[in-house]
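This part of the workshop introduces the protein records we will be handling. An example says more than a description, so a record of this kind follows:
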Amino acid sequence: MLSRILIPVSMVLTLLLSGCATPTKMAFADGTDAVAKTNKPVFLLTATIKNTYKQKFQPKLLVVNVERAEVKGSADRINFTMDDKAKHETGSPISGNDYFLRLELEPGEYVIRGLTSMSQSFPITALFFAPLHVKVDSTKPGVYYLGHVEATVRERQEKEFKAGPSIPLIDQAVAGASGGTFDIAISDQWEKDGPKFLSRFPVLNSVAVEKAIMPPFDREKAQQWWEVN
């Protein structure tokens, strides 16, 4: 039984934090960073992830998956890892888990591919992926608010994209990852998010945060990407 628990976790961590992508800390992770006076923009967004399908298994965010517009190797895939300042995790199926995300990017064009999360309830460990596929143009210095992502797992219908991989079969099914899908809503919640960002990251009080709200979630694009990946 012990090996059954450890193997899925090991596989996940190897996939996320190995040569497949470049693990990267989020901006202001150490609490002392100043807003860089360089050509590197910082993109702020919040995310709420919850599982209303299998409520015992509430996903906790591991990484934000970002890619350059043209991927040539692992350096063009960036996994922004979570830190304590990013998390507000309740595990409640009603409120879900909340995250405050800060993506500092070199100049260029990128895609926020999605949010990878994990749920654990002994002896089950499951992996989830909430697709976004949002283009980000990182060419103008500054701090930008992209909006709020509400990602909710519900039961999957017919051929809808899955909320996570199918393997390992038992874990993914029990947690609702393979039998569920994500409903995703993107909205402007700066009125609520702004004060929380400023409280968590005082350095932001010294800069003007501009809005660059992401477009509505494109479910058809997410479906097409899932079918070929």
Summary: The chain is about 20% helix and 40% strand. The chain has one domain: 40-62+82-228. Confidence is low (pLDDT under 50) at residues 1-11, 13-19. The helical segments are 2-16, 169-174, 190-200, 219-228.
